[in-house]
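FORM 7B: Structural annotation worksheet

SECTION A. Query
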Amino acid sequence: MTFRPLHDRVLVRRIDAEEKTAGGLIIPDSAKEKPQEGEVLAAGPGARSENGTLHPLDVKPGDRILFGKWSGTEIRLDGEDLLIMKESDVLGVIEAPASAKKAA
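SECTION B. Predicted structure
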């Protein structure tokens, strides 16, 4: 199934946080917080202003983003838990350093 968000909404898959602490302790599921980092799977065309012009989104599919703890609406699509949120809920895009891009 394909999904296309409307207006200024994005479809996001959460990226799971580490299951161990820096000291090597394993964190149980009941003590974990929901990750606030995700990958954009799909993005809408953008928001329309009052005069009708389309303002494209700053995020695109494939971007790694940070978002607020309680942002978005959780949905289940093809058996996978995803989030739909407005672009305004996105706090920022995580960009890999230039050295990591060359290695990939």
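SECTION C. Observations
The first helix runs from residue 98 to 103. Strands lie at 9-14, 37-43, 47-48, 54-55, 64-67, 73-77, 80-86, 90-94.

SECTION D. Sign-off
Analyst initials: ____
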